[in-house]
Amino acid sequence: MTECPHAAGAVPLSGPRFQGEPAALYRELRRDHGPVAPITLPGDVPAWLVLGYRELHQVTGDPALFTRDSQLWNQWDAIPEDWPLMPMISRTQPSILYTVGERHSRRSAVICEALEATNPFELKKSTEEFADELIDAFCAAGSTDLIAEYAMLLPVRVLAKLYGFSDDKGPALVTAMNDMINGGPAALAGQRHIAGSVYALLADRRAEPGDDVASRMLANTAGFTEEDVARDLMVMMAAGHQPTADWIGNSLRLMLTDDRFAASLSGGRHSVGEAMNEVLWEDTPTQNIAGRWAARDTHLGGRHIKAGDLIVLSLAGANADPQVRTDGSTLTGGNNAFFSFSHGEHRCPFPAQETAEVIARTAIEVILDRLPDVDLAVPAEQLTRRPSPWLRGLTDLPVTFTPTPALGAPR
């Protein structure tokens, strides 16, 4: 058994190979190391990557042994203050991501109640309106980048309205969230911008409540402070925007490059859902999650895990585990046993999943309605991915289509 993640053969969770061929890399890791593999994060920081479906279920189902309490990490003394992944793995970030037990349950209930009060028909209507507005900006040109000009802008526009932000705050929030999630040099600045925006929003809503998520959370904090609400809103923004944007982009990529989904391009609806479901199995936006920390020495997947070791959950790796994919087939048709929303008490709350699905599906349907002959403008193999260890999304998705006038424009 390997005693330390720094063992020979530890694989960096970064670089061209991880960015370009993650599925092949996960297969090799499973072949060479089994369901739990030694990895390093930027800065040669050791961790374990859980690739096995059964092992991931075990970790996420046992929050006492594999806890979200990041203060247990045995590497904190070696982590510099400017470590680029600090926004994603913080020692002093008491958001819902890092609370455990009964306090986590109460915190989750506040979020769920605030989201459940959203009218789903109003949510769909808002998504359609913002989608039409974005499409109006490029529909007459006959070409665009569906990532930069559409997928990366739409979710945050919808969520900003849902949470209580004014529409003009959206573009800067997109940039800040991308910087934070990508884990590059601008990650900490992105985190600071988001924090400042959220605290300003809560001050406004404290003075003048509205029919929005932020106001509802302030009115029902269940004993939590305004700082607690702010931190949870920051988590909700990051978790709600970027994965949804990548769900839209990855689904559109699949539909534009796979003949099985060609019917959707002429207005079909059944295959839109099929494509979205397949993406959650094969190309899930949330690839890896950091993480869990071992509360004591234990064993997992044939590995000796020491107390305080960091465990990174590979949702993408578990989805492709041959133990659950014995025939190698694509799993669609409503099979929702994927790990794309995680599992256990820290899985994505169901109201948040519903919100993401409404936004993503509506975004895809509006594009296909407005631009029915949309087609990829470059060979599929030229499409590239962002260099994030956590999320898998396209850097761009260039397309062409027959130019059409904006809605309401003179004909």
Would you mind describing this structure in some detail?
Residues 1-5 have low confidence and may be disordered. The chain is globular, with a radius of gyration of 21 Å. The relative contact order is 0.18. It has helices at residues 16-20, 22-33, 53-60, 101-116, 120-136, 147-151, 154-163, 170-182, 187-207, 213-219, 226-257, 270-282, 315-319, 350-370; strands spanning 11-12, 36-41, 45-50, 66-67, 143-145, 288-294, 298-300, 303-305, 310-314, 375-376, 398-400. The longest helix is centred in the middle third of the chain and has 32 residues, at 226-257. The chain has 14 helices and eleven strands.
Report a brief summary of the structure.
The protein is built from 14 helices and eleven strands.
Write the topology of this structure:
Layout lengths: L10 E2 L3 H5 L1 H12 L2 E6 L3 E6 L2 H8 L5 E2 L33 H16 L3 H17 L6 E3 L1 H5 L2 H10 L6 H13 L4 H21 L5 H7 L6 H32 L12 H13 L5 E7 L3 E3 L2 E3 L4 E5 H5 L30 H21 L4 E2 L21 E3 L11
Parallel strand pairs: 1-2, 3-9
Antiparallel strand pairs: 2-3, 4-6, 5-11, 6-9, 7-8, 10-11
